[in-house]
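>> received
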Amino acid sequence: MSFGSNLRTIRKYRKIDQSELGEQIGLSKKSAYSTISQYEREMKKPRNKETINKLADKLHTTSFMLEDTDLYSSEKVIYTLFWLAQFYGLDIDELDGQIILRFNQNKHGIIKNDVLIDQLSDWLEMAKKERAGVISTANYTEWMLNYPIQKPSFISKELDEYFDQLNTEFNNDELEKAYYECLKKKYESYK
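>> returned
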């Protein structure tokens, strides 16, 4: 998924029109609609990270969720999966006639990645809650849109401590720096 398609998807999910979002991030009433429209149509990209962070803040998500990926091109997704298989042990299998994917950290030559396993464990916990009806699909989606800030998160304790030390609330301007600092603190492999 590209920045523009991510922006459009999350904006529509939040039921905010393009003009409203543009004005919320400080664009003039005259240029708000056209600028957001150009971002979503990939005709233009924000000039700086600050604008991306403002968009993320107004959409109640993280800047990570707005970043480029290529998951809408179904013919290209397979290559992402192949790389995940090569580096992280993604296996394909079948269960009850359904294709399933799983991570096998015991395969030879696989990068042992505690961060990925912890992230997948967080996801599994929330997916089980959603399937069991403990949380709604909307709450499950909110958790995804705000990961790793939204609990449960393998790194939430460290992020809370980081922002407490700064004596500030979470903000997207600090997220990337905070996230990597916290990874270094929690995992030996990031030092």
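>> The longest strand covers residues 90-95.
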